[in-house]
């Protein structure tokens, strides 16, 4: 399912990106010879072109018939290749990965890219980036209009968070609730995502947390009749505010270890369903029960309960749980796998029924909300790139495996479109980086021409294109090589 989601998402991104180039090229009366989804080395899965008043199709074709090339050259040949690494829009008179300077030896023609004014060429080359970014904003707006928006404010995560060892080494403890990051104060409405971004991107010097600690009160009760003293110890939880002085090396540590997460929301252990042969079901545990202790030890969160169950594998235990606001104790024998045999509730709205802020939007409200969210996502993504400039930054690069891993195992349309919008923003930004071979490289050369009134030679553009493509292929190899190493080390 992850592979299917990746393929569909990439197809959407490629088509919208190349369609941006196509629309501006046609607007300025440039011929677009070919428009391809995926690369078609050696052969194409599908070719289609309209001439003689009707559409013609070729399936699994290696060589385009000569008459297809000659008839109605203003019409575009549409195709689907078989290598899902991108796609292309073959614009007449433009040096890109499909052409070289030798293809430009003839005199420029009115329908060619090179014969257009600089500002028109700038629009054509920027069209892909523009459409990618706009498509992301449209998707976010559509998501908000259809599903609304769910937010769990930081203060409403009553069980706190589980932290990666990187943060535990910095002084965090599982269950801590972040109150402030340097001068940034966490309010009652601050979203979890905003706190994580601040922690990840600002490399803070000090973090203030609310920590639950267990205190013991000892009482000595004298018994005059028996001439002895009874010692009574009562344990209770209390909350304290703790300032954590950070090492200042958080980004460096993240870059070195490449963790999947820094902090995870602690959730209650609520039974949603049972698996076949469940020891919990046999013992009388019911759907909707909320487990809160193991052998009398308080275990309020899912992570604490699963750890306690593993520690008591193949033993008799007592499970404390709430059912309809009534505390109950259920004895059972846990198997050697250390599991109860239950499926736990994973719907955040049900886990924190009073903590989720759900916002419904009409279409007129969703548009500005989508634009705002898209712009914030772009800012956060660009800020996160500073991790690449740490000592181990190259190891942070990810390829298609990394992209596929962000999609859920089961199909979820909301998750699919959310990730597609995010990838569209990434694609838009990465393409505008001024590397020859990317749209950003062409944009820089065009802007140079507009400023200096001097157009780079076609030979120079060809060489720059070659250097850029070598660099891009090297990055592709490194990124997917990292994915291979992660897979071999079990990090996927």
Write the layout of secondary structure elements.
Elements: H1 2-27, E1 32-39, E2 44-51, E3 54-61, H2 66-70, E4 77-80, E5 83-91, H3 118-147, E6 149-151, E7 161-163, H4 165-170, E8 177-181, E9 184-185, H5 192-201, E10 206-223, E11 228-245, H6 250-257, E12 263-265, E13 269-274, H7 279-283, E14 290-294, E15 297-298, H8 302-311, E16 316-323, E17 326-333, E18 342-344, H9 348-351, E19 357-359, H10 363-384, H11 400-405, H12 413-432, H13 439-452, H14 458-488
Parallel strand pairs: 1-4
Antiparallel strand pairs: 1-5, 2-3, 2-4, 6-19, 7-12, 8-9, 8-10, 10-11, 13-14, 13-18, 14-15, 14-16, 16-17
Helix pairs in contact: 1-3, 1-12, 3-10, 3-12, 3-13, 10-12
Structural class: alpha+beta
> Which regions are unreliable across 5 or more consecutive residues at pLDDT < 50?
none
Shape call: elongated
Main sheet record: 6 strands, antiparallel
What's the total helix number?
A: 14
Straight-line distance between termini: 15 Å
Overall pLDDT score: 84
Q: What is the share of helical residues? A: 40-55%
What is the β-strand count?
Answer: 19
Strand content: 25-35%
Radius of gyration: 30 Å
Q: How do you describe this structure in short?
A:
With 492 residues, the protein is an alpha+beta fold.
Kindly describe this structure.
The strands form 5 sheets. Strands 13, 14, 15, 16, 17 and 18 form a 6-stranded antiparallel β-sheet that branches. A 5-stranded mixed β-sheet has the order 3-2-4-1-5, with helices on one face. It has 14 helices and 19 strands. The longest helix is centred in the last third of the chain and has 31 residues, at 458-488. The chain is elongated, with a radius of gyration of 30 Å. The protein is an alpha+beta fold. It starts with a helix and ends with a helix.
């Amino acid at each position: 399912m992850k592979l299917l989601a990746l393929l569909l998402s990439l197809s959407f991104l490629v088509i919208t990106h190349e369609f941006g180039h196509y629309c501006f090229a046609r607007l300025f009366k440039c011929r677009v010879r070919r428009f391809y989804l995926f690369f078609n080395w050696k052969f194409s899965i599908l070719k289609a072109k309209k001439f003689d008043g009707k559409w013609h199709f070729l399936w699994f074709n290696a060589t385009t018939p000569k008459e297809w090339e000659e008839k109605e050259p203003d019409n575009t040949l549409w195709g689907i290749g078989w290598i899902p690494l991108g796609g292309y829009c073959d614009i007449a008179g433009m040096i890109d990965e499909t052409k070289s300077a030798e293809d430009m030896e003839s005199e420029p023609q009115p329908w060619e890219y090179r014969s257009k004014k600089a500002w028109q060429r700038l629009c054509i080359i920027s069209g892909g980036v523009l459409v990618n970014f706009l498509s992301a904003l449209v998707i976010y707006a559509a998501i908000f209009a259809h599903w609304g928006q769910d937010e769990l404010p930081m203060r409403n995560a009553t069980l706190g968070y589980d932290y990666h060892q990187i943060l535990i080494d910095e002084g965090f403890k599982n269950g801590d609730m972040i109150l402030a990051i340097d001068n940034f104060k966490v309010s009652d409405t601050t979203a979890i995502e905003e706190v994580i971004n601040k922690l990840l991107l600002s490399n803070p010097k000090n973090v203030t947390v609310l920590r639950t600690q267990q205190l013991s009160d000892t009482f000595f009760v004298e018994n005059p009749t028996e001439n002895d003293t009874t010692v009574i110890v009562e344990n209770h939880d209390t909350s304290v505010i703790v300032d954590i002085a950070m090492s200042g090396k958080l980004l460096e540590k993240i870059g070195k270890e490449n963790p999947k997460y820094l902090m995870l929301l602690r959730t209650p252990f609520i039974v949603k369903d049972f698996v076949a042969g469940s020891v919990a079901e046999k013992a009388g545990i019911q759907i909707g029960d909320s487990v809160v202790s193991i052998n009398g030890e308080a275990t309020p969160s899912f992570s604490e309960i699963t750890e306690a169950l593993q520690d008591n594998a193949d033993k008799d235990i007592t499970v404390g749980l709430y059912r309809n606001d009534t505390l109950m104790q259920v004895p059972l024998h846990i198997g050697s796998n250390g599991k109860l045999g239950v499926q736990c509730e994973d719907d955040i709205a049900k886990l924190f029924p009073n903590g989720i802020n759900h916002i419904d939007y009409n279409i007129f409200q969703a548009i500005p909300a989508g634009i705002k969210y898209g712009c914030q996502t772009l800012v956060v993504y660009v800020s996160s790139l500073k991790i690449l400039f740490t000592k181990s930054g190259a190891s942070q690069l990810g390829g298609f495996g990394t992209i596929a891993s962000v999609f859920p195992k089961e199909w979820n349309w909301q998750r699919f479109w959310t990730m597609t919008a995010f990838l569209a923003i990434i694609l838009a930004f990465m393409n505008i980086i001024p590397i020859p071979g990317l749209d950003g490289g062409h944009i820089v050369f065009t802007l140079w021409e507009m400023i200096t009134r001097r157009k780079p030679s076609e030979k120079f553009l060809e060489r720059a294109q070659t250097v850029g493509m070598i660099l891009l292929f090297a990055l592709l190899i490194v990124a997917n090589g990292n994915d291979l190493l992660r897979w071999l080390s079990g990090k996927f």
